[in-house]
Specification:
The structure is a homodimer.
Chain A: H1 3-17, H2 22-38, H3 40-56, H4 61-67, H5 71-86, E1 94-101, E2 104-112, E3 115-119, H6 124-136, E4 140-144, H7 150-167, E5 174-176, H8 180-186, E6 195-198, H9 202-211, E7 224-228, H10 234-246, E8 255-261, H11 265-276, E9 281-284, H12 286-289, E10 295-296, E11 310-316, H13 319-329, E12 334-338, H14 342-351, E13 356-361, E14 378-380, E15 388-390, E16 396-407, H15 410-413, E17 422-423
Parallel strand pairs in A: 3-4, 3-6, 4-5, 7-8, 7-12, 8-11, 9-10, 9-11, 12-13
Antiparallel strand pairs in A: 1-2, 1-17, 2-16, 14-15
Chain lengths: ~425, ~425
């Protein structure tokens, strides 16, 4: 089947799925949980094939770790599905109701977006998470996972498709692509696909953002900053900067650049250097180099997401220079100020143009689980629709539904009738 | 100055404007209203220049009418600004507050999107409306109006810039482009411009949607449908269809296609034909042609936005065929079902994938003013961010603001500390 035909079918199914009620969707989620548990042995066998092949192909160790899908991981995703069942259905909520005139009532009601394309890398648990999030929010989904996980992904998609079919979810609501060229095909199908969520390497995400007409929700870069103000508590600042940089270097919310107020630099930088030991390579501006030994930084360093034990460091004249630096070089992801001064914190949080702005805590907190959202679609650095860690609500939009009794616009133009525009507090009744 | 430099300046100003409080923004709006009134003579003089030149260039009559900006129109826009001042500030509202742990509090707070590019045609009042909407929502704006209105637009932009400068709004928050080639330049500047709102001819909107990486909010086509079900009240259906088609043919929410249930076609179509007289040309499928005389319709007609006294007509087997037709050929704008059967209405409103779905009333009601939104940014057929008539809230997004006291993520990974994830009901305190 062509990718276009597959997308057309999935879109048709998505439109039907939009009308599924909460009970049906939750029943289907429970069925998935049950069948994943029942198919445990089969899934682990498929994953072992992937692991074996990937080892022969010398897949790097961190990716091998993410690829592994064992009994414990299966239990995790099943637990995740059980939590998802407990979450409120985001669809069919009346956001606004207005009487336009007697017998002419307007309702703004949440509905699914439609058909979502999701591209993710090694971790097979992402397939389960994303597809169940789409199901709960009534969206169809086309998935493409990392090729290293192809056998695992295939069996997971099969199990999910079978379980939802049994539960009565429209067939074809989920499709799995095999190759990257199929993804390229998919990115052209803006008549069927309403949103693309790329989770993966920056390079590929940026390619998608550049190439497709379909709106994209996600982030290419995570160039996160810590700014240590002159009024910072040095001991706290050292602890927060180290956590922001080193707690997990390979992730988008790890700090890549440290900005330091010139007045505190002579005291703070040596303390940081000592606490870091030789775990982190420091790449610094000339003024940093006057205080501690650093590799000289180039313009390029301020724009680089190292995803490694490296940190670029710049001494700044004050808060406004820090804000300007972040708005110029940052990626709108997560930035934190360390200061005792509440007014400076307020200014930083107001003027730093990022989805997540923090005061006196680690950049690593910007995450759907840590924010208490439970299920997470991803982290978005867009300026519209959804920003920061995105939960189920990122997969939801709304429709206006207007119920009349034969009203025509000309009566209101001719002032035969007049709008009342009364706020109601009424659920959509149909 | 290059367009890039102009956009860079406007973005800088927009970031400052994001911090403006409600009182300052409302003061600036009042100043604009005052200075527009004071500059009345000057504005009318500039507009007369535009009118004279456009007449010499044989601008079509409807466009001449839209171009005209006289004392009454000035009063209208000034009244609009006064209403806008009364609207609640959409910025700085706390949407969510969660205690992640003791002393670690998360707030989701509304903020402006940033810098908006707006492209509009003949009507100079659009310049005033759009720029004051952007001001109220704390966004910078780059405007491009129709070249036929260039003198009027220039003086309006000058007055607004002067008034907001006096009130203390950051300079450069508003910029006016002169030529279409400058717009093409602007569409490349996705590092500065966060959203493009095109209001104008379909062709140009589609060009923008295709060419720019910047997210677009608007609509290219308005292919709206009326579906007359077998259970419709014929008299009501005739009235609603005629209003949907003829009340104002040149607008996006006018009906372009009529779908008729086969069982009601023999009674309904002749009644419609008679009521329409020869005001509207009917272009119909073969089955329509069996009942009333029509111009034969081609596949192309179902995809065409006539914006004229023409209506394509198709007889369908039933509700589901009507829904399929709309989802296939429609533009996701506005579609209305005429029926007495509540279950069919519910099904239509659930499964028609459009921003506005109506029961027993004219498609012409889908409009920000008629919906009671007051100020309107435009009508969107997007599937994300904002859909249908878009008020101020379409220019707003949010940030996550996290206030800590030195917390680091490693303490939570190591289970030294645990998240509490308590819902608070607290405004952001800074």
């Amino acid at each position: 089947m062509s990718i276009e035909e597959l997308a057309r079918q999935a879109k048709e199914a998505a439109i039907k799925l939009a009308g599924a009620d909460t009970a049906l969707k939750n029943r289907a989620l429970a069925q998935i949980a049950e069948e994943l548990t029942a198919a445990k042995a089969e899934i682990i066998r498929a994953n072992q094939e992937d692991l074996k092949r990937s080892q022969e192909e010398d897949l790097p160790e961190p990716l091998m770790k993410r690829l592994k899908f064992d009994e414990a991981k299966i239990k995790d995703v099943v637990d995740g599905i059980k939590s998802l069942i407990q979450l409120e259905d985001p669809i069919g909520r009346t956001l606004l109701s207005t009487e336009l005139d007697e017998g002419l009532e307007l309702f703004k009601v949440t509905c699914p977006i439609g058909l979502i394309g999701v591209i993710f890398e090694s971790r097979p648990d992402a397939l389960v998470q994303i597809s169940t999030l789409c199901l709960k929010s009534g969206n169809g989904v086309i998935l493409k996972g990392g090729s290293e996980a192809r056998e695992t992904n295939r069996i997971l998609a099969e199990v999910i498709t079978r379980a939802t079919g049994k539960a009565g979810i429209p067939a074809h609501w989920l499709a799995l692509l095999d190759t990257r060229s199929e993804v390229i095909e998919m990115l052209k199908l803006d008549q069927y696909i309403d949103l693309v969520v790329p989770r993966g390497s920056n390079e590929f995400v940026r390619y998608i953002m550049d190439q497709s007409r379909i709106p994209v929700m996600g982030h290419a870069d995570g160039i996160c900053h810590c700014y240590v103000d002159e009024d910072a508590d040095i001991e706290m600042a050292v602890r927060v900067v180290i956590d922001s940089k080193t707690q997990y270097v390979a992730v988008c919310n790890a700090a890549e650049t440290l900005l330091v107020h010139q007045k505190i630099a002579p005291a703070f930088l040596p303390a940081l250097r000592e606490a870091l030991g030789d775990r982190v390579e420091l790449i610094g501006c000339a003024r940093t180099g006057e205080v501690i030994p650093v590799v000289p930084a180039s313009e390029e360093d301020w724009k680089t997401e190292y995803l490694d034990y490296r940190l670029s460091v710049r001494v700044v004249a004050g808060l406004d220079e820090a804000i300007d630096h972040i708005n110029r070089y940052g990626s709108g992801h997560t930035d934190s100020i360390l200061t005792r001064d509440q007014r400076k914190a307020a200014r930083f949080m107001e003027y730093v143009d990022s989805g997540n702005v923090f005061w006196n805590c680690s950049t690593r907190f910007s995450d759907g689980y840590r924010y208490g959202f439970g299920a997470e679609v991803g982290i978005s650095t867009s300026k519209i629709h959804a920003r920061g860690p995105v939960g189920l609500e990122g997969l939801v939009i709304y429709k206006y539904k207007l119920i009349g009794s034969g009203q025509v616009a000309s009566d209101y133009s001719n002032r035969v009738k007049n709008f009342t525009h009364k706020k109601m507090n009424k659920e959509f009744p149909l």
